[in-house]
Amino acid sequence: MSCGAAYESGDAVPISRDSVSVISVAGSGSPVSVAGAPAQAGFRQAYIAARNTVLNDDAASASPASLLPDLPSQSDALSHTPPSAVASGQMWGTPFERSEPVKVSPFPLVLNRTVQRYVNAFLDHSAGLSNSFDRSAPYLAKMKSMLERSGVPSDFVYLAFAESGFAKWGAGPWQLTKSTARRFGLRVNSYVDERRDPIKSTRAAAEFLAKLHDQVEDWRLAVVGWNTGEASIQRFIDRKGMDYERMASSLPRRTRALLNRFMAVAFIAHHAEEYGIQEVQYSEPPAYDQLAVRGGTTLKSAAKLAHTTTDVIRMLNPALLRDRVPPGDADYELIVPRYRTLASNF
Predict the structure, then answer these.
(1) What is the pLDDT of residue 113?
(2) How many CA atoms lie within 13 A of 337 on its CB side?
(3) Any bridge partners for residue 293, and if so which?
(4) Residues 14, 91 contacting (CB under 8 angstroms)
C-alpha cells in the first residue's frame, strides 16, 4: 500500500508509535479481538492469566520458536481486510503518535488475523517468551543501535526472536548459515563460532539485511530473501515483479511463518502492557574488560588469571566451542569481568 494513497472506508490505515508503523486488521469493521475479548475494554485483562500460567519445566525453558508451530496461513496471512474503526488514528483506545523523527523507515508491521493467532500462541507460552526477553536484555539496546547504523529498522531485532527465541547457542540468535556468516566477516571453525555472539552476529545480520534491501527495496521482500536466499528472491521477482502483495501468495510456508512470527513478537514487545505481560526491559551488560591470551590458552587458566570461573568465561564468550581459545591465533581477545587482575597478557 502506498503511503500517499487515499484511504477508502474499510482500508487498512497505518498508524505509528515511535519508530513502529502499525496496521490493525480485523473483520466486520470492528477492532481486533483477542481470545474472544473486545479489543478495547478489558483488553489487558484478557492476558493476565497467560502471564501467570504455570508451565512444566520443559515448556518453560523452551524457546518460543520451538513452542510455536508453523501455523497454517489463512487467506489473510499476508494480505489485509482492515477495519474502519482504526481510521480515527487510535488502537485499543491508545493514541499512537510519532514522538520524534526516525532515521530509518520502519518495518510495516501488520496485525491481521493470522499474525493475531501467532500472538495468541506466543502468549499461551508466555514464560518461554519472557525468558527470551530476559536473555536479550543486556544486548538489545546495542543490537538495535547496530541495526539502525546500518540503515535497518530497529524492529528487525525481533527477527532474532522469531528465528531462535534469542538463543546464544547452536547457530546463535540470527540462525545464520555458515556460508552467510563467513561472507559477512564472522569466524566459524572448529574452535570459534561467532554466530553465537549476539553483538558480532548482529553486525553481520545488519549488513546482510541492508544488502537485501538494496537489492529489493522492500523490507518485507528482504525477509523473503533472508529466508529463501538471494537467488530465490530473484526468481520470485522475475515471476511476480517487485510487488510484495502479488508475491505473497506464492511464498513458501516457512517464509510466511517466519514473517508472521517476527511481526507477532514485535507487536508483543511494543504492547507488552496491553497484553498483560512484563514489559521488555533494557539493561546494560556487566562491566567487562578484554584480556589478550596466547593461542591455545585453556579457559581454566584464563579464568584463574581473571579471578573468575570457567563458567563465567564461557558465558561472556559464547563464540568459543572448546575448553581453550584457538591454538592457531597469536593472541585471542577474551571478554572477562572488569574486576580481573591487572595483568594484560597471559
Answers:
(1) 94
(2) 16
(3) 332
(4) no
Angle separating helix axes 198-216 and 157-164, nearest 10 degrees: 110
Q: Which of 126, 134, 155 is nearest to 68 (CA)?
A: 126
Report pLDDT digits (tens) over 40-60: 333 333 333 333 322 233 333
Compute the distance between CA of residue 331 and CA of residue 275 in angstroms, rounded to an integer: 48
Q: 236 near 247, Cβ under 8 Å?
A: yes
Q: Is 132 helix (H, G, I), strand (E, B) or coil?
A: helix
The reported pTM is 0.70
Mean pLDDT of all residues in 142-156:
95
CB 195 within 8 A of CB 167: no
Q: CA dist 162 to 158, 231, 262, 321, Å?
A: 6, 23, 5, 24
Distance between CA atoms of 324 and 191, rounded to whole angstroms?
8
- Tell me the DSSP string of 41-65: TTTGGGGHHHHT----HHHHHS-HH
- The pairing of strands 108-111 and 20-24 is parallel
Nine cell digits for residue 268:
508483543
Q: Are 281 and 95 in contact (CB under 8 A)?
A: no
Q: For residue 9, is pLDDT > 90?
A: no
Buried b vs exposed e over 207-226: b needs ≥16 C-beta within 10 Å? bbbbebbeebebbbbbbbbb
pLDDT in tens, 311-343: 999 999 999 999 999 999 999 999 999 865 444
Q: Which residues sit opposite 34 in a β-bridge?
A: 37
- Beta strand 331-337 with 94-95 is unpaired
Q: What is the pLDDT of residues 205-244, one digit of tens each?
A: 999 999 999 988 899 999 999 999 888 888 888 887 777 8
Separation CA 268–CA 140 (nearest Å): 15
Q: Report the greatest alpha carbon distance in the chain.
A: 70
Enumerate the H helices of 48-125 as residue ranges: 48-51, 57-61, 64-67, 113-124
CA-to-CA dists, residue 183 to 62, 177, 237, angstroms: 30, 10, 24
Structural domains in the chain, CATH included, are 14-270 (1.10.530.10), 288-337 (3.10.350)
* Paired sense of beta strands 331-337 and 20-24, if any: unpaired
